[in-house]
Design brief:
This protein is an alpha+beta fold. The chain is built from 2 helices and 3 strands.
């Protein structure tokens, strides 16, 4: 499956566009990070790691997920 990764220091956001149902939960929760009119549309550096995790956990389709860059 086609995936895109966006890195913010300790976390990598993984976006799977084919899973996305365009519910706009991400845009409404963190508009400073998610802007579909810009490229790249995800600016992971515009929020804290905890803010990103909290938002991604609310993604209804599972199109957004994350992985830690600090765990071995």
């Amino acid at each position: 499956m086609d995936t895109h990764e966006y890195i913010n220091g300790d976390i990598t956001i993984i976006w799977q566009p084919k899973k996305c149902i365009h519910s706009t939960v991400c845009v409404r929760m963190l508009p400073k990070v998610y802007n579909p009119k810009e490229r790249p549309w995800i600016k992971a550096g515009n929020a804290t790691v905890q803010e990103l995790k909290n938002q991604i956990d609310q993604c209804p389709s599972g199109a957004l997920s994350y992985k830690s860059n600090t765990e071995k």
